C-alpha cells in the first residue's frame, strides 16, 4: 500500500505564488511517474502536471503552462508543484497521484490520464482571491 501526503495549500491573492509538495511512503512500490490533478466545485478532475521518474520528462495542462513547474526528489519520493502568477480560476482542490506501473498499452499521453494512476492523496485546497 502507498500513502501520499500533500501539503502547501492555502489562500492567496491573484498574482501570488504557492508551492505544493507530496511525499509517497509505503512498502515495496515502484514509481514510474507522479502527477498533480485538480478539481474545482462542479467540475471534473483535470490534469495539471506530471513528472516521469525515469528520464525526468515533464507534462503540463494547457491552462498552467508557463506558470507552474513540477519537480521531484527521487531519494525522498517527493514531488513538488511551484505555482506562479496564480489566477482565481486556479482555485481547486489539488490532488497528488502516483503511477506505479508502465503505461497501459496503446494509451497516448498516459501521464495526463487519471486512470493510469493507482494511488491518490487526500487533496489540498488552493484558493486564489481576485
Brief account:
By secondary structure, the chain is an all-beta fold.
Spans of at least 5 consecutive residues with low confidence = none
Mean pLDDT: 95
β-strand amount: over 45%
Instruction: Give helix and strand order, one letter per element, not per position.
Output: EEEEEEEEEEE
Backbone CA Rg: 14 Å
Describe the sheet with the most strands: 7 strands, mixed
Account of the protein in words:
The chain has 130 residues and is mostly beta strands. 0% of the residues lie in helices and 49% in strands. It has strands spanning 2-7, 10-13, 18-26, 33-39, 46-52, 58-60, 68-73, 78-83, 92-99, 119-120, 124-129. The strands form 2 sheets. Strands 2, 4, 5, 6, 9, 10 and 11 form a 7-stranded mixed beta sheet that branches. It is globular and about 45 Å long.
Please name the defining characteristics of this protein.
seven-stranded mixed sheet, 130 residues, four-stranded antiparallel sheet, mainly beta
Topology:
Layout: E1 2-7, E2 10-13, E3 18-26, E4 33-39, E5 46-52, E6 58-60, E7 68-73, E8 78-83, E9 92-99, E10 119-120, E11 124-129
Parallel strand pairs: 2-11
Antiparallel strand pairs: 1-3, 3-8, 4-5, 4-9, 5-6, 7-8, 9-10, 9-11
